[in-house]
Design goal:
The protein has eleven helices and eight strands. The protein has 406 residues and is mainly α. It has a single domain, classed as Cytochrome p450, CATH 1.10.630. A two-stranded antiparallel ribbon has the order 1-4. A two-stranded antiparallel ribbon has the order 2-3. The structure holds protoporphyrin IX containing FE (HEM). The site of protoporphyrin IX containing FE has 25 residues, from α7 and α11.
Length: 406
């Protein structure tokens, strides 16, 4: 099932909900383990969480910078460019291609996913989790969710079909090729296997959706926070100037020398918690947690947002203060209550990749541009809109070339 369709992870308990597949909402068990392991190792082959991915991200950032350059001095919404760029990074690993920012079909796909994520967690369609038959209702958000799933499914199935036609087993080029090769290998061994084209469809849906909306919202929040806190923006830019300069793009190797930039990204992630309730879990055993009995089969929702705003763990938790992540020597300091990617066995599979993307996108944009709020505009709404992810309300900023006045 696609993540833009509402559901709950069943953690291995039988019943209607355990039929879901993929990784994000797969029940805990052998199939989830096998599929997560295969996906991680194949994506690592393409540089996932490693320096090899850096050139791909830097290449995509050239397109982003070119779009931002066209908007210099004007009030501009960065939503579409950022969403498309982030999606392209995952698409190039999974499907072996990027999509032009003007590609109408892909634009529609991205907006369907954003809409689907909102409906999935903030509309009557959420009830599909409890009464699956509701997905067949021909009106309102039920109908919209069904149509969204249908359209996104058609897009992904078409990609798999094209790969089936063109794939060279001796020379697999992307995640889909590798997965198709694995299916053929397992079939040849004549083993019963969880690898199938159906499962592949769910996995690429997961990677495509989980890898786009989360990171893209984090980048959008980062742009908005920089426009709202010009003093922090200036300090990040000073660090970029000293460590990277202007003649080359920032690299992951610079990160260790840029603690304030890293602390700023962490503080933006803490303040915004883009996956505020993680993914719903289900208790696979009855447990006694601090005197509360949680019966087997209960849905357990981890409120990461509240952990990030807990006054017993953070001083003045509602204040934006990147320095809270720095020690007296200006080095990064960790806080165990910082968990934007969740914790435990089901921790985000894309954590390493997301951290790379956030650092490279944030530092590359700030190397070239300052972001300002349009004059006379209302103070931006920093609370966000709730879906499966917490996204900023639509906003416009003015990019200004960094070399000139900020
Ligand atoms: C800033 C970006 C991101 C944030 C904040 C984020 C956050 C999260 C969170 C909170 C979870 C749920 C953890 C839980 O239920 O306990 C999750 C799961 C997941 N994420 Fe991410 N994520 C991000 C980017 C990505 C990317 C780039 C990918 C892949 C390309 C990805 C793939 C996944 C997958 C596959 C899961 C399910 C893991 C499992 O159930 O085994 N995420 N993410």
């Amino acid at each position: 099932m696609l993540p833009c369709c509402p559901r709950v992870r069943s953690d291995g308990i039988s019943g209607a909900r355990s039929k879901v597949s993929g990784i994000v909402f797969a029940p805990y068990g052998m199939v989830w383990k096998q599929q997560r392991k295969f996906s991680l190792s194949t994506l690592r082959h393409f540089g996932f969480g490693k320096l090899d991915l850096e050139p791909k991200i830097i290449e995509e950032l050239q397109f982003v910078k070119s779009e931002f350059s066209k908007a210099v001095g004007t009030a501009f919404s960065p939503f579409h460019v950022i969403n498309n760029a982030v999606s392209n990074i995952i698409c190039s690993m999974c499907f072996g291609k990027r999509f032009d920012y003007e590609d109408e079909e892909f634009r529609t796909m991205l907006s369907l996913i954003v809409r689907g994520m909102k409906l999935a967690s903030n509309s009557p369609a959420m009830l599909i989790n409890i009464i699956p038959l509701l997905q067949y209702l021909p009106f309102g958000s039920f109908k919209e969710v069904a149509q969204t799933v249908k359209d996104v499914s058609a897009f992904l199935k078409n990609i798999i079909a094209q790969h089936r036609k063109t794939m060279d087993p001796e020379n697999p080029c992307d995640f889909v090729d590798f997965y198709l090769k694995e299916i053929d290998r397992e079939i040849q061994k004549n083993q019963s296997t969880s690898f199938s084209e159906d499962y592949l469809f769910y996995i690429i849906g997961d990677l495509f959706v989980a890898g786009t909306d989360t990171t893209s919202n984090s980048v959008l929040w980062a742009i908005l926070f920089m426009a709202a806190y010009p003093d922090v923006q200036e300090r990040v830019q000073r660090e970029i100037s000293i460590v990277v300069g202007e003649s080359r793009p920032p690299s992951l190797k610079d990160k260790v020398h840029m603690p304030f930039t890293e602390a700023t990204i962490m503080e933006i992630q803490r303040m915004t918690t883009v996956v505020p309730l993680a993914i719903p879990h289900m208790a696979s055993e009855t447990v006694d947690f601090k005197g509360y009995i949680i019966p087997k089969g209960s849905i357990v929702v981890a409120n990461l947002w509240s952990v990030h705003r807990d006054p017993s763990m953070w001083q003045h938790p509602d204040e934006f203060n990147p320095s809270r992540f720095l020690d007296a020597n200006g080095n990064i300091t960790r806080n165990e209550a910082f968990m934007p990617f969740g914790i435990g066995k089901r921790i985000c599979m894309g954590e390493q990749m997301a951290k790379m993307e956030l650092f490279l996108i944030f530092s590359t944009l700030l190397q070239s541009f300052c972001f300002k709020l349009p004059e006379g505009s209302e103070a931006p709404n920093m609370n966000g809109q709730f879906g499966l992810t917490l996204s900023p309300h639509p906003f416009k900023i003015i990019p200004v070339r960094h070399q000139t006045t900020c």
